[in-house]
Amino acid sequence: MQARIPQPDEPPMTTPADPERVPTILFEDGPCLAANKPPGLLTQAPPGIDSIEVWIKEFLKRREAKPGNVYLGVPHRLDRPASGAIVFARHVRATRRLAQQFEHRTVQKVYWALVAGRVEPAEGTWEDYLWKLPGEARATVVPPDHPEGRIAVLRYRRLATLGDVSWLAIRLETGRTHQVRVQAASRGHPILGDAAYGSAVPFGSQHDDERLRAIALHARRLAFRHPMTREPVSVTAPVDANWTSAGVDASRADE
Question: What is the pTM of this model?
Answer without folding.
Answer: 0.90
